[in-house]
Amino acid sequence: MAEPLIITLDGPAGVGKSTLAKRLAGHLSIAYLDTGAMFRATAWKLGEGSWDWSEDKIREELGSLSFSLSGQGADSVLSLNGSPLTEDIRTEQVGMWASNVARITAVRDFQKKAQREIGMTTSLVAEGRDMGTVIFPDAGCKFFLDAALEERARRRFLQLQEMGREADLDELIKQIGERDAQDRNRPVAPLKPAKDAIMVDTTKLDIDGVFAKLVEKVETAS
Ligand code: C5P
Predict the structure, then answer these.
(1) 107-111 own/partner pairs: CB under 8 Å, 24+ apart
(2) Which of 1, 89, 140, 208 could bond to 40 as cystine, CB 3.0-4.6 Å?
(3) How far is the CA of 99 from the centre of ligand 1 (A)?
(4) Beta bridge mates, 78
(5) Each residue of 209-219: pLDDT tens digit?
(6) Under CATH, to which class is 6-204 assigned?
(7) How many CB atoms lie within 10 A of CB 63?
């Protein structure tokens, strides 16, 4: 059997990774893996304040969690212990909880194992913070997306509005800025581009333009 195809998309919050990764996965007829959702669901399950627990307790709790992925493109379904993840994890507050647990070695080890297991049998467009650097260093094509903080917060603001949630733009700029700083400066698997990643600044590009650029690069690489 041919090796699964892995494409990685890393970058900070609100840069357009999810939209692009889903669309790229659909275009290639492969699955979309949202590793941010895996961290969010883990933080949600462990609960508020779990980041202050001992590593032993965290490892023990993680032992009862199991992720699985099915489907393709926008229809990919990520499940935790057999139940599809819900929209409850999509708030900025749970994003910060995810960022808090994402600094813990036991959590990163657990995620690494779960994500690599999925990638061993399934072709993926995988999005996150350390896909190209740590989880899939041999990926066939790696992208690192970036955009100005204000623009990313504006996009997240519109997304939340579409979901019918309350949002405050200034608050989002502050929250996303803090989460990014924590993700970029942590000692384990910090947010940074892989040496061989293709850099894409999405601040001024429209989504169709960026998508066309990604497809062109993937087709040239394969
Ligand atoms: O991408 P999303 O905003 O859903 O990610 C939530 C948080 O999960 C990030 O701020 C980051 O701290 C963590 N994360 C991570 N590594 C990944 C994906 C997400 O540390 N591969």
Answers:
(1) 107/39, 107/42, 107/58, 107/62, 108/188, 108/189, 110/42, 110/59, 110/62, 110/65, 111/35, 111/38, 111/39, 111/42
(2) 89
(3) 6
(4) 69
(5) 999 999 999 99
(6) alpha beta
(7) 9
Strands 67-70 and 77-80: antiparallel
By most ligand atoms within 8 Å of CB, the mutation choice from 8, 15, 39 for ligand 1 is 39
- Atom 4 in ligand 1: which residue has the minimum CA distance? 36
CB distance 102 to 183 below 8 Å? yes
Per residue in 171-204, pLDDT tens? 999 999 999 999 999 999 999 999 999 999 999 8
Task: Return the residue whose CA atom lies nearest to atom 16 of ligand 1.
Answer: 129
Q: Which of 211, 220, 207, 213 is nearest to 27 (CA)?
A: 211
In short, whether 100's Cβ falls inside 6 Å of ligand 1 is no
Q: Which residue has the tokens 């998309």?
A: 9
Q: Does ligand 1 come within 6 angstroms of the Cβ of 11?
A: no
User: Domain locations in the chain?
Assistant: 6-204
